């Protein structure tokens, strides 16, 4: 746009967020958001990323929030558009990803007329947001936007939703004299805030850790960085306590040079057996372990009876700082042990493509500094072992179990870290939820390589049906097949501007993956694998 930007509420909002460091907006807007779209275009240094579906916009904001020091903004179209994006806002909230979720609404003066899109936007937002506010005056929009940013950055970090009626966005406002500087989300006053632990919390944890066998330190959230893992490794080596990571971390640093931590299994029987002898459980940024789903006659709580549970830090604290404090108490002279194991043998070029051989190919090919997005579901069991000795990388997982996250997550992660290649391992059924993320990858020329592990089924549903129903689940098997017709991911991908190919052997996958990683821009590889049973 040309000329001087108008002094309206929309420009107040975008200007305040840009001044506070927010530089990216993922959007699928509508008529109610036109003034906000215009303001974004008028705001220097703001990158507006168009998405064809709101679930892509919210999932991309999740990926961006996991990897960047300052969160991204979304811009969604009223209640219906928000509803389309709620699944990936759920995932973002469960991962603790900071997201400034701006949702347009009909004009306040238009309410009660029965307009087609009229709804209670704030009520729709509340289940997937930790903070919700509806703006009523243009003069308040700058302050409301900064309040949303502070709420998103936390602690705890998460989704903050600001509802902006269209007449609030277009109404004029009078700029006030500059007030106090906006908080820097990456500074100690914002996302990385340090708060001293309450009296006795580190000491109580230190006593539990020194108590001998039976103590488990369960890591989650911000403890899964190289810094947090180093502190946990020091503690384990000095005290003999065991350490595990939560099953589906929002972000986990891994690979050579980083202490290796095993993740608690998502399989309830395996997890229950792993925790059976734990008498003292210390939660460091992790939630109390429970089964993902209820099973008739089986307790959902995985904590053994009689086990003492201690939370290392509360929601107002930087748990990594507290973990460092505990490590200094119980392991003052112990150094962390970086992972240095050599990668395992590579599969032969002519080997059959299976979930295990694909994982080994990926583990061998991971470049230094890569971001690995994992939404493989049933095909990913071999991935942790296959990538433990890979080059140093970050792993992003499906924290909230709402599928359709992987492709958008890769979009956001690559925009947050444009110098780092992103590899997305995606299940075929999950890919179809948000396949239009490929169009955004092509439009923005993102360095994302997608491997679709194509087993032509919703294998996880087949597995869970067998677990829940036993032999009586067999008649349901046909319902979970995705082979009538087969999904042609090569043609689907090329139709959205992303070059694609299909491989049949380990050698072909190795060559195609190497080629994709050596070329700029997005690529997709369709990898047929047998369904897990």
Walk me through this protein's architecture:
The chain is α/β, with parallel strands linked by helices. The protein has 3 domains: 162 residues, Rossmann fold, CATH 3.40.50.970; 130 residues, 3-Layer(aba) Sandwich (Rossmann fold); 174 residues, Thiamin diphosphate (ThDP)-binding fold, Pyr/PP domains (Rossmann fold), CATH 3.40.50. The protein is 35% helix and 16% strand. It contains 19 helices and 17 strands. The strands form 3 sheets. The chain has a 7-stranded mixed β-sheet, sandwiched between helices. Helix 13 links the parallel strand 12 and strand 13.
CATH-defined superfamily of the largest domain: Thiamin diphosphate (ThDP)-binding fold, Pyr/PP domains
Structural domains: how many = 3
The residue ranges in which pLDDT falls below 50 over 5 or more consecutive positions are 177-184, 186-198
Largest sheet, strands/sense/barrel: 7 strands, mixed
* Order of strands in the sheet with most strands: 9-13-12-14-15-17-16
In round numbers, the mean pLDDT is 91
Strand percentage lies at 15-25%
Spatial gap, N to C terminus: 57 Å
Question: Tell me, what is the CATH class of the largest domain?
Answer: Alpha Beta
Q: What is the number of E strands?
A: 17
Decide which structural class fits the backbone: alpha/beta
Instruction: Report Rg.
Output: 24 Å
How would you sum up the global shape? globular
Give the fraction of residues assigned to helices.
25-40%
- Can you name the CATH architecture of the largest domain? 3-Layer(aba) Sandwich
């Amino acid at each position: 746009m040309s000329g001087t930007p108008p002094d309206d509420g929309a420009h107040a909002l975008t200007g305040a967020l840009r001044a506070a460091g927010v530089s990216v907006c993922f959007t699928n807007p509508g008529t109610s958001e036109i003034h906000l779209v215009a303001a974004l275009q008028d705001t220097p240094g703001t990158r507006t990323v168009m998405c064809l579906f709101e679930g892509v916009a919210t999932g991309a904001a999740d990926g961006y929030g996991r990897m960047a020091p300052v969160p991204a903004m979304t811009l969604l179209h009223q209640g219906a558009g928000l509803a389309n994006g709620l699944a990936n806002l759920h995932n973002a909230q469960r991962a603790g990803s900071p997201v400034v979720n701006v949702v347009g609404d009909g004009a306040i003066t238009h309410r009660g007329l029965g307009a087609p899109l009229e709804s209670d936007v704030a009520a729709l937002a509340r289940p997937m947001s930790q903070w919700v506010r509806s703006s009523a005056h243009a003069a308040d929009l700058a302050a409301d936007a900064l309040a949303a940013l502070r709420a998103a950055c936390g602690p705890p970090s998460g989704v903050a939703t600001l509802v902006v009626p269209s007449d609030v966005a277009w109404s004029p406002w009078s700029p006030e004299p500059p007030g106090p500087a906006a908080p820097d989300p990456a500074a100690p006053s914002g996302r990385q805030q340090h708060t001293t632990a309450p009296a006795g919390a580190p000491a109580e944890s230190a006593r539990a850790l020194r108590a001998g066998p039976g103590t488990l330190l369960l890591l989650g959230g911000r403890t899964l960085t190289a810094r947090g893992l180093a502190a946990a490794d020091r503690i384990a080596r000095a005290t003999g306590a065991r350490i595990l990571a939560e099953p589906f971390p929002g972000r986990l640093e891994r690979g050579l040079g980083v202490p290796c931590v095993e993740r608690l299994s998502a399989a309830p029987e395996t997890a229950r057996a792993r925790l059976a002898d734990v008498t003292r459980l210390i939660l460091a940024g992790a939630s109390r372990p429970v089964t993902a789903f209820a099973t008739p006659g089986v307790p959902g709580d995985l904590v053994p009876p009689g086990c003492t549970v201690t939370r290392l830090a509360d929601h107002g604290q930087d748990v990594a700082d507290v973990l460092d404090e505990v490590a200094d108490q119980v392991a003052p002279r112990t150094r962390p042990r970086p992972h240095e194991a050599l990668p395992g043998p590579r599969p032969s070029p002519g080997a059959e493509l299976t979930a295990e051989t694909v994982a080994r190919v990926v583990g061998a090919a991971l470049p230094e500094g890569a971001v690995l997005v994992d939404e493989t579901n049933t095909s990913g069991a071999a991935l942790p072992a296959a990538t433990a000795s890979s080059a140093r990388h970050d792993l992003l997982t499906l924290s909230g179990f709402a599928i359709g996250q992987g492709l958008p997550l890769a979009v956001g992660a690559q925009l947050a870290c444009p110098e780092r290649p992103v590899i997305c391992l995606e299940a075929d059924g999950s890919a179809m939820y948000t396949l239009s993320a490929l169009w955004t990858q092509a439009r923005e020329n993102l360095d994302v390589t997608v491997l679709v592990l194509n087993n032509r089924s919703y294998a996880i549903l087949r597995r869970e049906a067998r677990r829940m129903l036993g032999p009586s689940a067999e008649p349901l098997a046909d319902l979970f097949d995705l082979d009538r017709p087969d999904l042609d991911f090569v043609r689907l991908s090329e139709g959205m501007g992303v070059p694609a190919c299909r491989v049949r052997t380990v050698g072909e996958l190795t060559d195609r993956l190497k080629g994709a990683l050596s070329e700029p821009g997005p690529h997709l590889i369709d990898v047929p694998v047998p369904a897990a049973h």
